[in-house]
Structure formats: C-alpha cells, structure tokens
Model the fold of this input.
Amino acid sequence: MRTELGTLVDVREPKDAEEPILGPAVRAAILGWLAEINAEAELAAVGVKPRSTALLSGPPGCGKTTLAHHLAARLGVPLVIVKAEMLVSSSLGGTGRKIADLFDGLAEVGVPCIVLMDEIDAIGGERSSDDQACAREMNAALTTLLQRIEAFGGRLIAATNRPASLDKALWRRFSLQIDVALPGEDERFAILKRYGQPFDFGDDAIEALTEITAGAAPSLLRQVMEGIKRTLILGSRLRLPADDPVAVLRLVAEGARPHPDYTPPPLWADLSLARVLEDTPWPPARIGG
Ligand SMILES: Nc1ncnc2c1ncn2[C@@H]1O[C@H](COP(=O)(O)OP(=O)(O)OP(=O)(O)O)[C@@H](O)[C@H]1O
Ligand SMILES: [Mg+2]
Done:
C-alpha cells in the first residue's frame, strides 16, 4: 500500500515565515539564487536553467529550517518539509518504497512549492561496503533517493548539520551549497536585539551580551533573550531576582545552556561574566510605551 504524502510531510505557509539574520556570505548566496530563479526566461535564452537544488549545512539552531521557509515565502510558495527520519522503515525495502511514495506524491501536488528534506543525513549517509542486511538496505534506499532527486522537476532544499557524513554522490546532486555558520559579531548583535524586543535594553547592554556570547547559535541567543523577558514579566510573582540584571542573566544562562559537546561561549564558561550588565539601566524600557 502506498504511504500517504500527508503522513510524510509538514506544510508551512509563507505568511508564517520569519526572516533569519544571516552573515554577508549566506545573504549573497540567497540573493543570487532568488535572482536566477526570477530570471528564468532570460537564462533560458542562453541555454541555462536556474539551479533547482540547494544543500544547507551548519550547526544546529543556526537557521537552516528558518532560511528554507523564508526562501519559500520570498517566492510566495509553501514549504513542504520532509523529515528524512520519517522515511526510515524497519521493513525490508520499506525505506526505498517510502522515498518512492514521497516523490510520487510530490509530483502530484500540482501547485508550486519548495521541498525541504530536513536532516537528510538520516538517509543520505555515506554508502557502506559492509554486507550486513542493514547496510544493504540503506545503500538501496540511497540509490532510490539519488535517482528520485535527479528526476525531480521541482525545487528541492536539503539540510544537515553533519555535512561530512553525506554520501558524495548525494552531495553532487545539490547544485548550490550554502554554509549556514554560527553568527559573527554583527549578526549576534542584531539577533539579541531582535529577540529582546519589545524591550529596549540599550546598545551598550546588547554590545556587552554580544561579546560574552561569542560562539553561541542563534537559537541559544533567542532562548537567553526570551528567558530575560520571562523573568522581567514573572520575576516578582515567582520571587526571582528580577530587579538585578546581573542576577537575571546568570539565572537565565544557568537554565539555557549550549550542548556539552560544543566549546562553551564565554558566558557559559564563566557565569560571573553576567556582571557585564552591572551598570545597565534596569528594568529596560518597553519600545512604544
Ligand atoms: N539566523 C537566525 N536569525 C534569527 N533567528 C534564528 C536564526 N537561526 C535560528 N534562529 C531561531 O532559532 C530557532 C531554531 O532555528 P532553526 O530551526 O531554523 O535552526 P536549524 O539550523 O534548522 O537547526 P537544526 O539543525 O537543529 O534543524 C528558530 O526559532 C529561529 O527563530
Ligand atoms: Mg532544522
């Protein structure tokens, strides 16, 4: 029996997209891609097509899924997210069949969309020469995936945070490779400021936070700013030290930590760095009253 497309994908509408804050190299790559997609006819006149596949790689929480959704929204189409792990089946030939059902289903959708194969390393890992049944099964599934991507007529983005583990033939199927890396200083400043809204923490405080969070992913920066806002609103109710910015930051950083496998950003290596907020006017004003 064929697996229904609805059980394999999750659809996100353009109106729900959020614009990620990205470094100059990623921004340039995205703008370039959008420009070629919008110049399809001019390119066809010289015998070239806009590229239709892209691979986004980078550490967790740096905005790969957010970026794919934003791109779809910029083109005014929904994003159809396939979690690669949903395609993995324990039955013999099951993974390959699900991949085939997925692409058959996508071919029947009939409206333009962007397909995101998220966490593609779950099925696109390096082929193995091992003759175990499990390895043979994954190799067969990968071959199906390669053929189906090759034959797919639509726009396809894949995302991974383990690019080195991807099969080389699969890698080659993506005509555009974009490295969504950890944010640099300017990007961290903008991310902290964005997620601090509607409070205005002041540029000095945001600058200090930018310094002590070097190496943090945007998702962690968001957690920190949202944690501060939660404490500001609920602090007195929960008897938290909401009146003291240093204590607030310390508390929030104790509660939201980077993964233990990563080198911790300065704040998490030494929580006493929360003192950089010592002279910050507190509580911060709310923008617009
Ligand atoms: N560059 C960014 N600018 C602003 N916000 C970001 C950025 N990157 C991530 N975020 C925020 O962090 C959260 C997680 O981001 P997202 O899911 O896009 O990361 P990811 O790279 O796909 O992670 P994973 O590898 O775990 O799938 C989102 O809520 C998003 O709002
Ligand atoms: Mg993701």
